[in-house]
Amino acid sequence: MSEVMRFYYEGEPEPQMSEEWEAFMNDPDRFRGYPALPDPEDITAEELLEQLQAVDTRSVRDSNDPLLSVPPEQIDPPVEDTDPPTVVASGPEKDAAGVHPKAEIWAVFSESVTEARMELKGPDGSPVAGTSQQENEDIAAFLPEQPLAVDTRYTVEVSGAKDAAGNVMSGPHTWSFTTGADVPTVSGFEPGRDATDAPPDIKVMMTINEAVTDVQVIIKDPSDTAAQGTLSSDNGNTLWTFTPAAPLAASTVYRVEVSGAKNDSGNVMAPYTWSFTTGETSPTEHKAAG
């Protein structure tokens, strides 16, 4: 039997017995066959069953198909994607001030896109030299060729982003930010400010917002005596660690002073300070007590 056969019947199991097949064939409301199907009068129910079993079952639809329980006119057609992509997040933030001249410039889209373009413009509207690129399917970035000018307002424009359905963003998305001075700053440290019960043998760590040199770290007790130790750097000279030569005194407030950090533009950070308190027992005392 070369023609594809399809059956449509609602609320009934598939015929199994000869009598069931005969009733099925003779009911025009339940039986659908192509011209190659033999006339019921020219073939026995057993022969018809044998031929039906020889049909490629991948082309036969039965009562287990959920689509057969819904009239064709009620089946919803596929929903067409007509929504254009939009920018849902960006950096630096809109109207941000004091932005570092080397800060990353990026935009996140509402969906995966291609052909996104980013442009950075100065106060007079002239384009800033740089590269627009997609860092991942839904993120675009702009990389200036040179650090931005200090204390200057810049405008970012994103356009052209197209989704998989071919929808292009409805118009350019723009926002502005203002740069600050090009000086290094401390962006994180440990122990935290005013932390208590810090282990006396703790290492004091600080993160600078860019690669720097000439960093100086001094840790002083209440009598202004500086702790001896070594200073090392990691992560491209942005993470700095002071390791005391001996455990700090127990139950003591220490003041950390960071200064001298210089970036590749030759700008030096302003001194930065914070304090923390050590715990009650030093490692040596704890060992002796045990």
Q: What integer value in Å does the Rg equal?
A: 37 Å
Q: What's the architecture of the largest domain, going by CATH?
A: Sandwich
Uncertain ranges: 1-6, 56-64, 283-290
Main sheet? 4 strands, antiparallel
**What share of the residues lie within helices?**
under 10%
Shape: elongated
Gap from first CA to last CA: 91 Å
Please tell me the total number of domains: 3
**Which range does the strand content fall in?**
25-35%
* CATH classification, class level of the largest domain: Mainly Beta
Count the E strands.
Answer: 16
Task: Briefly note the structural class of the backbone.
Answer: mainly beta
What do the pLDDT scores average to? 83
Major sheet strand order: 1-3-6-5
CATH topology of the largest domain: Immunoglobulin-like
**Count of helices?**
3
N to C succession of SSEs: HHEEEEEEEEEEEEEEEEH
Domain SbsA Ig-like: 81-179, 184-278
Pfam families: Big_5 (PF13205)
InterPro entries: Cu-Rt/internalin_Ig-like (IPR014755), SbsA_Ig (IPR032812)
Region (Disordered): 54-86
Topology, element by element:
Layout: H1 18-25, H2 45-54, E1 87-91, E2 96-99, E3 105-109, E4 117-121, E5 130-136, E6 139-144, E7 153-159, E8 173-179, E9 186-190, E10 195-198, E11 204-208, E12 216-220, E13 229-234, E14 239-244, E15 253-259, E16 272-278, H3 283-289
Parallel strand pairs: 2-8, 10-16
Antiparallel strand pairs: 1-3, 3-6, 4-7, 5-6, 7-8, 9-11, 11-14, 12-15, 13-14, 15-16
